[in-house]
TrEMBL record:
Key words, A-Z: Ligase, Phosphopantetheine, Phosphoprotein
MF GO annotations: ligase activity; phosphopantetheine binding
Cofactor(s) listed in the protein's UniProt record: pantetheine 4'-phosphate
Name recorded for this polypeptide: Amino acid adenylation domain-containing protein
Lineage top rank: taxon: Bacteria
Keyword Cell inner membrane recorded: no
Pfam families per the UniProt record, alphabetical: AMP-binding, AMP-binding_C, Condensation, NAD_binding_4, PP-binding
GO terms for biological process, alphabetical: amino acid activation for nonribosomal peptide biosynthetic process; lipid biosynthetic process; monocarboxylic acid biosynthetic process; secondary metabolite biosynthetic process
């Protein structure tokens, strides 16, 4: 909120409540006692302890400074500003388990680092990004630092970074004003700040809180636990805080509107945000977070500190209020929040006691921030241009940050990249501006009518994501089309059953039946019941009824007599055709005993005449007769004919019974086009292998079935590994969701050659309304189920809200179907018809109707429809809105789950599992994959999900899950659990704690978590991260974590081992000749795919490939587009002195991301990439030794899986760059290339674990026939001639530590530095890829000619650095102190990696086989000696990583 905004709100608050601004001064504290934390500081401290680092809660500003910069003057000014403001000098610690701040004495100079990039200015972006992401240690003040990057003598980049715990947004403007004022050499002293931050914090701690507590309890009582915004990806189980931002500008002028309506700009902009969020979430109760700065105390506006507290603004939109009414409500909420802002927000969250969940922020998940543009940096003689650098973190799902400027309003929408795509957020920003303008234009409009879309978007949405549907057929009815087909091909087989009917025979028999029906009194518009099983006779019966001018009503003769009697009584048909004994009070005809009669009269039927009636059960269970007219049936037949290619020569297996309308979708498209229908009487009896045999024996080319039955076939085919040797080309499924995993298995079984059509359509929309075609689901960006696709040509599909208005793309709503699809209605049910068949507000045709399906769907970004479940199936459990399909999809990923259904029973989420999975195992997997509220409370294992007669799941037949008795109290086991139980009981103030008790369910919360950890540390002398309590919240689990802080090894490795199982669809088994041909193509490739081209080894491998062949290399690279990607690759090659202009036409950038599904590449583009690929080189990924496995998994493990899946499409050989780090180094073993790394035990770091999993996956793919070569280098160092090497790796950091400290351990440890120059490793891999011996095996790159640690130290001295030899203990202490004092990244990294007693490495690598093979190509690894070291040192001096010897570091 801007300062003028706050002043205006204060005035409004004073006018409302008779309040005045606070007067008088805050008392000064005496002594040096620790200062309590303010509420917002406590929350930030806790989040830091929870692991929210990596720049998540830092404030960073950057400028480009052009001119003669006085570095020392800037350093002096920054130090003076820090001295002036107590908050900037504060460090944070604990006292009696409570966090406190301890201001350091003046003179605590902030860090101002200097990086000289005048020789390598293109590295600046990486340096700035690393600086902004570098975490602060809250215990080591000052929590402010600067970085200067020299690009030229008169051009610098300046980055100023503060931790949010010592400064709010307004503080940055104060700091910049003072920094600008103090920079000049003759700058006068500034007056002392009127308020000391420590005094303010101490004063605030004494203020009473009762009023605030009551206010917030009332304000947020029963608030929704989660703002259910539709996301592009499922919410992960824990926030990663990865983010991005979208910048935009608002040109709206709010001044006149605000004056006219007596509201602030903050109120108007926040209201527009609330309305947009409500529209997307489908909620009428929205809570938004907002920071407020306390400026009730005179002088605070001149002080730096964390004076802001987060407040919640709740808006209720029940009853569709007007814009003006919502503005008044929002402004009143802001006033109330302002009045009670000093109440600690963490206590608000504590009082509300939301369910513990690491997947989202409690109470609110979206933030709104409004600031004024604020002061800039103004340095005399220097031009300072502010840099708008990319956002990389997100504290909330969405944060709308607006800043008022003289030219308008600058906006940025920050978002969690775990949840949203950039395109989605850009669309949100555009909708925000449209909504704001509409709001300003008509403040008296109900909020439901305020438009958030452009006119073009409204048209696109109204038409269901595509233009209005054209007329498909020419109006000719199916009866005419079938008789015409019989005239054209009389001898062609129409029905192939126990008897074979030609087209002429079918029409002849049907006409005879029509004559008998007419003679029996059947007339136009009557209904004829067909009590026949699927057979040639049944098809004859329905065609005969239609030729008689009647509609047919299919009945299943196997149904109970009472059911048949009920339907016959309700339908009152004019006649019954059957071969069973079905009681009926009317004419009963048997096809085998038809009397002789004359022909039926020729009737001129029209599209409005009734074609068939089918009874369908709705959500109430009551059967309703759906009446479908000829026009809709004709349109369906013609759409299907064109969509699926029905025609002569096609043989269609009809699985659905006639009582299921899908049968009509097989029979009529086949018969109007000259195909052959093969009815099947007993769907349940047909197995997967049986289907293949049937298709082979009877030449079946097309099959239509229910999704559930098809999934059963796939499972059976996979279990028996049945060869798919049959002519089937098209599979049509529908009725249930289609899991993508099953599609991939199906594609693997069928060779990816069978079209799979996912049909969607209720009976009321004439069989099928939308369809989606795929072969292997490879185009679906990692989605868990197939979309239902696009409307058929004759169908209009629209997703609407409760008021039948089109919803925004991505927003769930009810799917409505119009055009020529809707049936006439429910026969003789005018009330039910009027309820479900409503006037179509989107159709230009007068009297048009659309059918409300009751199904929940949404449009994706490409305009495809996604089925989300039933509107009436959406669950609400303990305040969370839950889509069962999301939970079901996660369950299906478990290897033991074959099928699943999730529903709610008595406010419990219940999962019904089919398969051999242990429910405890499934629950454990779900906890790792889903937010806590989506994990089912109960599980039931069934042999199969109960199905009804139509093959759909019968929800009413599901049993109640077994009741779980409350667990008996379990005594703590062992001394550790007993001691922890006593600590827990004391902290929670309860009598006793059992080993199965949950900290949070027994009354714990985030505040008490910090207290608990302090007591654990004090009483047990063990350091356990706060986050551990959230992940292991029962006493027994927590005790396990305390025994081995973090995670137990078996727990950590469980996920690694699970990820190392190769998916079943990755299978490249080929004939030996095919495999050999693929290898020969890879040795002299035309097209190659390379990952890691913008890294370190990748550019050198790329250059080697381009120099030694004419290959075109497609490079997967993170970039907005191919142009940016190519430019990035070129720059990296130039940086490493590898660029050759002749490379340009042979480098093709493929924008993507290893960590994203399908490599982040659109399906069509990935198909193009894979189409003519000869070889894949995979050396991309993230090399970070400090990140946990879960964070490295997407790029390093899942990315490898996607590349192997891509390679399997054509059996493309793969060269994987792994690491020798996949072998534990603490074992007495000699490792040769023939020793596989099969056991990950002992791999402690996430990086080695991720490389091991990828390595194992690649070798598994090799076992399944894919030509895979694994290259395992050890340490890859700089170029052997240029010395250009990586910054930030262990060796580079070690060299910087030794030089900056000026000392090294005197002991010459049993430590040898192996250095394999990058040019040698790249040349060796390239050479092997061009030799037959380089395929299908493993190669190791470990420089046997190593350099002992003592030689490294001697080499530094030889280069001119004065390195003193001191005992290790003294050196280690000096290292830790220097790291603490300077926060130098290299010192900090080495401190984290060096232990006081480091066990020597015992594993020996024998790489003689690799050395012999590459030596044949004239390649010998240079020795790791002083010559090589000197080249590296010279390079590091050139780029500023090391100071020039023997001078001090340049500043």
């Amino acid at each position: 909120m801007t300062h003028p905004e706050r002043e205006q709100l204060f005035r409004l608050l004073a006018a409302r409540d008779g309040l005045g601004a606070a007067t008088g001064s805050i008392p000064r504290r005496t002594g040096d006692a620790p200062v309590p934390l303010l509420p917002a500081q406590r929350q930030l401290w806790f989040l830091d302890r929870l692991g929210a680092r990596d720049g998540v809660y830092t404030i960073s500003q950057s400028w480009r400074l052009t001119g003669a910069l006085d570095v020392e003057a800037l350093r002096r000014a920054l130090a003076t500003v820090v001295d002036r403001h107590e908050a900037l000098r504060a460090g944070f610690g604990e006292s009696d388990g409570e966090p406190v701040q301890i201001p350091a004495l003046p003179g605590t100079a902030p860090e101002l680092s200097y990086a000289d990039l005048r020789g390598a200015p293109d590295s600046a972006d990486a340096v700035l990004a690393a600086e902004r992401a570098r975490p602060f240690d809250l215990t080591r003040p000052p929590l402010v630092r600067g970085l200067l990057v020299a690009l030229a003598d008169d051009v610098h980049l300046f980055v100023l970074t503060l931790h949010h715990i010592v400064a709010d947004a307004a503080s940055v403007g104060i700091l910049l004003r003072e920094l600008s004022a103090l920079y000049p050499a003759n700058a006068p002293a500034l007056p002392e700040p009127p308020v000391r931050y420590g005094d303010y914090a101490t004063w605030q701690a004494t203020k009473p809180l009762e009023a605030g507590e009551q206010y917030w309890r009332e304000q947020l009582h029963d608030a929704p636990a989660l703002l259910e915004l539709p996301t592009d990806r499922p919410r992960p189980p824990a926030e990663s805080f990865r983010g991005n931002g979208h910048s935009f500008r608002l040109s709206a002028d709010l001044t006149a509107f605000c004056q006219q309506h007596g509201v602030t700009a903050n109120t108007v902009l926040l209201t527009a945000y609330v309305l947009l969020l409500a529209r997307h979430a489908g909620q009428d109760d929205v809570v938004v977070g907002m920071p407020m700065r306390d400026e009730t105390v005179p002088g605070i506006e001149q002080c730096v500190g964390m004076f802001a507290n987060t407040v919640a603004v709740r808006t209720r939109l029940t009853g569709d209020p007007t814009v003006a009414e919502v503005l008044a409500q929002v402004q009143d909420a802001c006033l109330g929040a302002l009045e009670h802002q000093s109440y600690p927000w963490e206590r608000v969250a504590q009082d509300l006691r939301p369910a513990r969940d690491l997947s989202h922020n409690p109470v609110f998940q979206v933030m709104f921030v409004l600031n004024s543009a604020g002061a800039g940096l103004e340095l005399p003689g220097v031009r300072a241009d502010w840099l708008d650098l990319p956002v990389t973190t997100a504290r909330f799902d969405l944060t709308l940050a607006l800043a008022t400027t003289p030219d308008g309003i600058e906006g940025r929408l920050d978002y969690a990249t775990d949840l949203f795509d950039a395109a989605t957020v850009a669309r949100l920003a555009a909708q925000y501006e449209h909504l704001l303008r509409a709001m300003l234009a008509d403040p008296d409009a109900p909020v439901s009518t305020v438009e958030a879309r452009s006119a073009a978007d409204r048209t696109w949405l109204r038409d269901g994501g595509h233009p209005a549907p054209p007329a498909v057929s020419d109006g000719t009815l199916v009866t005419t089309l079938i008789t015409r087909q019989a005239a054209r091909t009389p001898d062609a087989i129409a029905v192939d059953d126990e008897i074979r009917l030609t087209y002429a025979g079918l029409v002849s028999r049907a006409r005879r039946l029509a004559g008998v029906l007419h003679a029996s009194g059947v007339r136009r518009g009557d209904v004829v019941a067909l009590g026949l099983p699927a057979s040639a006779g049944a098809i004859t019966g329905l065609l005969g009824a239609l030729l008689a001018g009647a509609a047919y009503l299919p009945l299943d003769p196997g149904h109970p007599p009472a059911r048949l009697a009920e339907l016959l009584a309700d339908a009152y048909p004019a006649a019954l055709v059957t071969d069973h004994d079905i009681p009926f009070d009317g004419p009963v005809l048997h096809l085998d005993h038809l009397p002789e009669t004359g022909p039926a009269p020729e009737l001129s039927l029209g599209p409005d005449d009734l074609a068939y009636v089918i009874y369908t059960s709705g959500s109430t269970g009551a059967a309703k007769p759906v009446a479908v007219h000829h026009g809709a049936l004709a349109e369906l037949a013609e759409s299907f004919r064109k969509l699926h290619g029905f025609g002569p020569g096609e043989r269609v297996l009809t699985i659905p019974p006639l009582t299921f309308d899908a049968a009509a979708g097989d029979i009529f498209p086949a018969l109007v086009s000259g195909a052959t229908v093969l009815p099947w009487r007993d769907p349940a009896s047909l197995t997967g292998p049986g289907l293949v045999r049937l298709c082979r024996d009877r030449g079946i080319t097309m099959v239509d079935t229910a999704s559930a039955l098809w999934q059963k076939w796939v499972a059976e085919l996979a279990a028996e590994n049945t060869p798919f040797d049959c002519p089937l080309r098209t599979m049509m499924v529908g009725g249930e969701a289609v899991p993508a995993t099953v599609v991939r298995t199906w594609a693997a079984l069928t060779g990816g050659r069978v079209e799979l059509h996912n049909h969607y359509g209720p009976t009321e929309a004439t069989v099928c309304a939308t369809s989606y075609l795929t072969f292997d689901a490879g185009e679906l960006d990692g989605r868990v189920q197939l979309p239902i696709g696009d409307p058929l040509p004759h169908v209009r599909a629209c997703v609407v809200d409760d008021l039948l208005r089109p919803v925004l793309p991505g927003v769930p709503g009810e799917l409505c179907l119009g055009g020529d699809a809707p049936a006439r209605g429910y026969r003789d049910r005018p009330g039910a018809t009027a309820e479900k068949f409503v006037p179509d507000p989107f159709s230009p045709a007068p009297g048009a109707r659309m059918y409300r399906t009751g199904d929940l769907a949404r449009l994706d970004g490409e305009g495809r429809l996604e089925f989300l479940g039933r509107v009436d199936r959406q669950l609400k459990v303990r305040g969370h809105r839950i889509e069962p399909a999301e939970v079901e999809a996660a369950c299906r990923r478990h290897p033991g789950v074959k099928d699943v259904l999730v529903t709610a029973r008595a406010d419990r989420l219940v999962a019904y599992l089919v398969g051999d999975a242990d429910p405890l195992s499934v629950r454990s997997a779900l906890r790792d994959a889903l937010p806590g509220y989506l994990v089912p409370d109960a599980f039931a294992v069934l042999p199969a999900l109960p199905l009804n007669a139509h093959g759909k799941v019968d929800h009413r037949a599901l049993p109640e899950p077994a009741e779980t008795a409350p667990p008996a109290f379990a005594e703590p086991e062992g001394e550790l659990e007993q001691r922890l139980a006593a600590i827990w009981a004391a902290v929670l103030d309860v009598d006793r704690i059992g080993r199965d008790d949950d900290f949070f369910l027994r009354g714990g919360h985030s505040l008490l978590a910090g207290t608990l950890m302090a007591k654990v540390r004090a009483e047990l002398d063990v350091e356990v991260p706060v986050r551990t309590l959230f992940e292991a919240s029962t006493l027994a689990a927590f005790a396990g974590a305390v025994r081995a802080p973090g995670y137990r090894e078996d727990d950590r490795l469980a996920a690694v081992l699970a990820d190392a199982v190769l998916p079943a669809d990755i299978d490249a088994r080929r004939t030996p000749a095919q495999a050999e041909a693929a290898i020969q193509r890879a040795m002299a490739p035309r097209i190659a795919l390379l990952t890691g081209a913008s890294g370190f080894l990748g550019p050198h491998l790329l250059a080697d490939l381009l120099r030694h062949s004419d290959v075109v290399v497609r490079c997967l690279v993170r970039a907005a587009d191919a142009v940016e990607g190519a430019a990035r690759i070129e720059q990296v090659l130039r940086d490493h002195l590898l660029w050759d202009e002749r490379f340009r036409p042979r480098i093709v950038a493929v924008p993507g991301d290893l960590g994203s599904p399908r490599l982040g590449v659109p399906a069509a583009e990935l198909d193009a990439v894979a189409a003519d690929l000869d070889v894949i080189f995979h050396c991309g990924g993230e090399a970070n030794f400090l990140r946990p496995y879960a964070q490295l998994r997407p790029g390093n493990v899942l990315g490898t899986t996607e590349l192997l899946r891509l390679a399997c499409r054509g059996g493309t050989p793969v060269h994987l760059v792994s690491s020798l780090g996949v072998y534990p180094l603490d074992r007495d073993a000699v490792i040769t290339e023939d020793v596989p790394p099969d056991d990950p035990a002992g791999l402690d770091r996430g990086y080695e674990q991720s490389k091991w999993a990828a390595d194992r996956l690649a070798r598994a793919a090799r076992e399944r026939g894919l030509p895979v070569t694994v290259h395992r280098p050890a340490r890859v160092t700089g170029h052997s001639r240029t010395g250009i090497g990586p910054l930030g790796d262990r060796f580079a950091n070690l060299l910087r530590c030794l030089v900056l400290l000026g000392s090294a351990p005197a002991e010459d440890f049993d430590l040898e530095e192996d250095m394999a120059p990058v040019d040698h490793v790249a040349a060796a891999i390239g050479h092997l890829s061009r030799r037959r011996t380089g395929y299908g095996c493993d190669f190791h790159f470990h420089n046997q000619r190593t350099m002992r640690f003592g030689e490294v130290v001697a080499g530094l001295r030889e280069f001119g650095y004065p390195i003193e030899a001191i005992p290790f203990e003294a050196w280690h202490t000096a290292l830790a102190s220097a790291a603490a004092e300077t926060a130098d990244p290299a010192l900090s990294a080495i401190t984290a990696m060096v232990e006081r007693t480091s066990p020597p490495r015992r594993t020996v690598f024998d790489c003689s086989h690799t050395e012999v093979v590459v030596a044949a190509g004239g390649l010998v690894c240079p020795p790791a000696d002083r010559v090589l070291l000197q080249r590296y040192l010279a390079h590091y001096v050139r780029i500023g990583h090391l100071p020039a010897a023997p001078r001090k570091e340049h500043r």
